[in-house]
Amino acid sequence: MLLTLCLVVPLATFVVSFAVRRNADLQRSVSIAGSALLLLASLALGAQVVANGPVAAQMGGWPAPFGITLVADLLSAAMVVITGIIALAVSVYGLGDVDRDAERLGHHTLLHALLLGVTGAFLAGDLFNLYVWFEVMVIASFGLLGLGSRGDQIDGTVKYVALNLIATLAFLSGVGLLYGATGTLNMADLHQVVPTLENPVIVLTTAAMFLFAFGAKAALFPVFFWLPASYHTPSVTVSAVFAALLTKVGVYALIRVFTLVYDASTLPLIQNLLLWSASLTMLTGVLGAAAQNDIRRILSFHIISQIGYMILGLAVFTPLALVGAIFYILHHIVVKANLFLVGGVVRKLTGSEELGHIGGLWARTPWLGVLFLIPALSLAGIPPLSGFWAKLVIVKASLDAAYYIPAFLALLVGLLTVFSMSKIWLEAFWKPHPQPDAAATMTLSRAERWSLLTPIVALALITVAIGLIAGPFYGVSVVAAEQLLDPHAYVGAVLGENR
Amino acid sequence: MNSIILSAATRIVTPLMVAFSIFILLRGHNEPGGGFIGGLVAATAFALYAKAMGVPATLRALSLSPPTIAVVGLAMSTLAGLWGLVQSGVLLKGLWPLLTTADDGSKAGLPIGSVLVFDVGVYLVVVGSVLSILFALEADVAEENEGED
């Protein structure tokens, strides 16, 4: 019931927000109410999964593995909860950020279509429906990226569309091949069938196709170039949702497929590819960021670099490493969305995102400096903020498993992240504004202050909370990782007595 | 497009295609067919009409804008799914209120239920979204042609 609710809420919000599109105020209220309901539904689902273990629901009453199954273990539930948090944060932030034109063209409607796709992907119990939810998400994100049809937006959208279509095609081909070989696509069923396959070629081929497809969605090296080409072009609200959720759906799919469907530790080639791809992703992302001078471009490259840490956790594939990967995802979504939101406020107060054209914020608005420093230092992994624990677990797991080079790279990349963050700090906050007279006229209205700063403060508080009281969050990650490595409860919830 | 042959043929072919699309939609209940493919056939019919008579005439004939058609369809499918959720606790559960099953297993009445509502919704979503995309592209072409004149 709660599983279905987590999908019905964004779907209903999508329909209702379209129906009331001529009334801007009503549409905004519908959008925020929809996000708030999604957060409530996801929290209830999370509580249920924490209390009772994995839950599943069969659509239309057709039993698994024949019908459509929705299923949530602790990883899925945690991802849905964090989706709800981000949904509410960006809906509120959007009040002060998204312009009227974008709203009229369907910003709210598309935003909830995107949330529907993201939630669906986290809850899908079979590979074909995972594909369908990916499509829903990708089509909505095409729309959100292109709203306004500015030249640079279309340029970014075309690159985004091109790589995503290729990745989707690889995904669908892999699904087809796997179905031909096994006769099932239900992931719990595949968990039992794939180890019995006698043809190692089909296992490796489909695994490699999924690796490429999800790797491209997650922006892994070397298929990451669509991300920095497109993420700085839409409104800040949209950038923040993309940064928080889209690549993480790819990471989630990689973790799900390579723990449940395939056992990554029995496929050394895939594991090595993941390992080296993760290391190079961390490095190229952070080096790319160092070369940029635009706040959102710097942050976009940092997404790539951070994805590397999560995939490193999957590649090392010890229980501790998976704990680290999950903890990293939860921490990263909050921090990265918040940095984009702060970047939007910086632009409103200084008139640009280009570091050469802005400055003087520390003298004018020291509170914004604090709000920037919390996620920025957390991203770089400074104790006691959330990023420190996430990095600590990943590096410790890599060292324990004797992967010394990736562990060294992870530490080096942390250092380079500090460099990028201090660059934004020095340019935007510390140095005087090149045109102080023009900048002094740019202020936030009272309404803007509420809608823009409330989500930033809330997300910053979550970051601090994950850092200072890491215990419960770490505990959730441990249980989620245990469920991934021993999916008995998951398989039982899906297949019931048909096992 | 200014062609007497095309516009004369369209007047006959478009109603036939729409009727055929509805046949496919209804047939899809138990046989190959259904809302998706039926919707594509109907969208083709209106695309042909738009080629022959122009986009404004087609929009008048449709009387609802294509995005609205799509969202009405989505709302229908959502409600059909929720119907099952409310009545039996399972989303998308097939329900046939007009169908009665006798003790010997034979069925009587009309097989009209949530599944048909869902499929009509899919039909409308497909018609609406295909026509939205098509008309947007047609509008771009029309603008470019005006620029050349």
Helix/strand layout:
The complex is a heterodimer of chains A (499) and B (149).
Chain A lengths: L1 H18 L4 H29 L2 E4 L10 E4 L1 H24 L2 H5 L2 H17 L3 H20 L4 H32 L4 H7 L6 H19 L7 H5 L5 H26 L6 H23 L4 H22 L2 H32 L10 H4 L1 H15 L5 H15 L3 H27 L5 H5 L5 H23 L1 H16 L2 H8 L4
Antiparallel strand pairs in A: 1-2
Chain B lengths: L3 H24 L7 H19 L1 H8 L3 H23 L10 E3 L5 E3 L4 H35 L1
Antiparallel strand pairs in B: 1-2
Helix pairs in contact in B: 1-2, 2-3, 2-5, 4-5
List keywords for this structure.
heterodimer, A: 499 residues, mainly alpha, two-stranded antiparallel sheet, B: 149 residues
Structure report:
The complex is a heterodimer of chains A (499) and B (149). Chain A has helices at 2-19, 24-52, 74-97, 100-104, 107-123, 127-146, 151-182, 187-193, 200-218, 226-230, 236-261, 268-290, 295-316, 319-350, 361-364, 366-380, 386-400, 404-430, 436-440, 446-468, 470-485, 488-495, and strands at residues 55-58, 69-72. With 499 residues, chain A is mainly α. Chain A has a domain at 266-488. In chain A, helix 13 (295-316) runs parallel beside helix 17 (386-400) and helix 14 (319-350) runs antiparallel to helix 20 (446-468). The relative contact order of chain A is 0.11. The mean pLDDT of chain A is 90. In chain B, a hairpin with a 5-residue loop joins strand 1 (99-101) and strand 2. Chain B has helices at residues 4-27, 35-53, 55-62, 66-88, 114-148, and strands at residues 99-101, 107-109. In chain B, 33% of the residues are buried. The two termini of chain B are 16 Å apart. Chain B is 73% helix and 4% strand. Chain B has one domain (4-148). In chain B, helix 1 packs antiparallel against helix 2 (35-53), helix 2 crosses helix 3 (55-62) and helix 2 runs parallel beside helix 5. The chains are: A mainly alpha (499), B mainly alpha (149).
Compact summary:
The complex is a heterodimer of chains A (499) and B (149). By secondary structure, chain A is an all-alpha fold. Chain A is built from 22 helices and 2 strands.
